[in-house]
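chain below, 503 aa
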Amino acid sequence: MLVFIARRLFVSIWVFFAASVVVFFLSTNVRDPLAEARQLPDNARESAIAEITERMHLDDPTALRYVRWLGDALTGDLGVNRQGQSVNDLLETAFSATLQLITGATVLAIVIGISIGVISALRQYSALDQVVTFVAFVCFSLPLFWVGTLLKQFLALDFNDWLADPEISPMFIGGIALITGLFCGGIIVGDRRSRITAFVSATAAMAVLLYVLSVTEWFADPGLGPVVVALTAIAGAIGFTTLVSGLEWKPPLQASLIAAALGIVAYFALDPVLDDPQILTLLGLAVVAIVVSGAIGWFLGGDLYRRSAVPAAALTGLFAGAVIFVDRMLQSFADYSDSVGNRPISTVGAETPNYEGTFWESGLDSFGHLALPTLALVLISLATYTRYTRASMLEVMNQDFVRTARAKGLSERAVITRHVLRNGLIPITTLVAYDIGTIVGGAVVTERVFGWSAMGNLLTVGITQGDPMPIMAFFVVSGGAIVVFNMIADMAYAVLDPRIRLS
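prediction:
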């Protein structure tokens, strides 16, 4: 493994070096950096041109300018831009904004896209598969700027107006309930009677839920409460146990249920701590939840079931903590909404200027600014992950070793999770690594539509001003991310498929 990493690093350094030469020479000729200075009045033109020429070393040959930039970059200094601002400072601000923008969108697109792709492959040519295929192609075809504009109008402006009187219309309740019922009926395995029962039950349950939320005006002052938190944690315990080991083994289920019970106890015991916590406090509690839950799975699982009980219990503990986090965030929604003039979903910028609030209110402020650009990126990326996952799963399901696994008597859950999904994720790993590596460079269109100043804005400003320093800073981050994540993808291949030897 170390030899492989060293070899890849050696090759990547030379590729990175050659690419930096090409990008630098192109960036120095993209536009005249003195164009704006030449339009100044006569009394200021000469001094402005001289100042920019000296700052950007325009009198030196391009090769000498590159060597000077490379020497400074190796020491961590990316120079100054045309206005004399430190590019390091600009890059730090832009990169942090980009991470804030793309992290949630990328994770959601990967998790939701792969999950839908797996379900679509398992229900090949069913009505659910046809609907997923249609929606995926529609989302893939939509221009990002148009999606962003629609979201700003209907999911921000109209939603903020609706919150003043959050009453759900009967037509909307019926539509959402029908969609939910169709989805649940489509994923159920069984005969027609089972699917119809699931459809009717899910439709009725969703209709009742939405009606109750509308009557109680829950959306104006939301919150989950201890009962919903407890039921959600227990449901998570059952779900994670089913996914990891199945319900036929008692030790993993017992460990998960105990982890969920500890989460319910923590809901009340940690009330003073969670009143206005720090981010390090929450991270520490998350680590404690994973360790304690994993330890429960270790002791209850024993030698025979430990391999399944530990991850099931650890996931349940982390999930219970996430539910408590969401509940605390929702309880602060009413106060935050009042503080921003009842306009919680923002359409422009990364944060409310000069806003000060509790930890939960500040988190809601960040979420309100991230909601629209994140949803826009997820809708566009979702189709790619869904289609790739479906195609990869279908290809693996027709392999001989899958038929052998079924012939040996393995349960369908074990066949899908241990054999089909694991091998089907190999091509998806390449896609994920490339996607993360490229999106770290910024989402130019999304940033422009929603008024974010991040990596994409750093690149466009450098191009429009003919300034190679911001462009090279963009290249260092985005190019480095592509190299690193592709190396991680190569190492992940060996984890997913033992037949792959890195040597």
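Residues 345 and 368 are 5 Å apart (CA to CA). The chain has 18 helices and no strands.
thats it, cya
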